[in-house]
Design brief:
With 504 residues, this protein is an alpha/beta fold. It is built from 16 helices and 26 strands. The strands form 6 sheets. It has a 6-stranded parallel β-sheet, sandwiched between helices. Strand 11, helix 8 and strand 12 form a beta-alpha-beta unit.
Amino acid sequence: MARSIMIQGTMSSAGKSLIAAGLCRVLWEDGLRVAPFKSQNMALNSFITRDGLEMGRAQVVQAQAAGVEPEVRMNPVLLKPQSDTGSQVIVNGEVWGVMPAAEYYRRKPELVPHILGAYRSLAAEYDAVVIEGAGSPAEINLRENDIVNMGMARMASAPVLLVGDIDRGGVFASLYGTVALMEDWERAHLKGIIINKFRGDVALLRPGLAQIEALTGLPVVGVVPWLELDIDDEDSLSSRFGGSAGIPGGPEVAVVRFPRIANFTDLAPLEALPGVSVRYAASPRELGTPDLVVLPGTKSTIADLLWMRQNGLAAAVRRLAARGVPVLGICGGYQMLGRTIADPEGVEAAPGTVEAGLGLLPADTVFGGEKVRTRMAGRLLAGPKGLAGLAGAPVEGYEIHMGRTKVDPGTPALCRVAPMGGGPEREDGAVAGSVCGCYLHGLLDSGELLARLWRQLAEGRGLDPEAPAADPAARREEQYRRLGEAMRKSLDMAKIYEILEAGV
């Protein structure tokens, strides 16, 4: 049976996901078989496993850092917010229902068998399980039915390391306050403190470290510096929406930043392309006059389409397309580019809703009650006007959507794909003039496609079209290596191994 250790934080975005990923990496490098685990995740940035099940992106990152294939047991419960008060609930990778927060809170005890089953099966197969909490364990109003913080620590008999974010200020107060609000049995699980996102001279921090150790009775097992790493973020609190700077006079890509943007990591490969400037636009002014416009995925296609119409972005995108600027839509963005979006069953809006799309593709979408979830691979069949050189590039990714899009006969498809687990090929997406779209998330993870895209954009700017090296998989592995190196330098791994072995 595996040893387990849990990473909790004093607040959301304290850095739990990254610390857990780094710990997974170090343990794996030390020769252990490691599995990440988070009983309940809340994020719109999800992933489809090889067996067609849906899980949170944070545990995908942690699994990759640990050198193992992501699987849904690592995140048995996923909440995908659909409004300020309700979420789609995914259990063991499949839709369990859509429910308001109060109903979900009441039904959480029903999820315990699913959580325990997933955790215990991982623990039986691996040497170590690194568990991630959510938010803060000191949310005393949520303590009764907790299944993700100390409730999970109790189920797994896991020792806990508490992470505080010093970059936001007030880290010692948040650490002390979190410990002070815990009950005795909860404090028994706490075994150490990690200060995260530190900038400066650690020597100046030492008096504070000594005092927090005295106040809490817990050792500080690490001070992790602010890390500049290109690793997938969990949700739309991501700092990556600042975009990336390119070279003067270089290609510019504008990404529409939907209020409910989902799977935004699709754009990470573009940000890593040397010389390309990527900006996230929430208004026509921010959209500007780029060389490529991308409409990414969204959890609420209809609501975000209305948002585009209200703030002028819809008209701005149409004007750019009319001028021949390439426009790419992915999943929800692809649906918006068509003529209509119908929701007869009330999946996203009132039953019977029919909304006009941007009218840039000869296609119509109808939402249904069954979610499509599958991993796909294939090739681009065509590129839009201005990017015709993309045709023939290999692609690989996953589909995750509730809509079915019907394209007019005779319209060129963007790609031909087949299920990675085996199955017939089919065409996906559409191309019309300078506009194209499809359902494939991860479309831009292809190194060959990125190289071709750079050549096309560079030629359009009159630049040297020689393509820079573009290997997203190699870049990702290098980021994990750097993460592990940083953790070794900043964490007291001898103490952490002692905590891991001792348990609770």
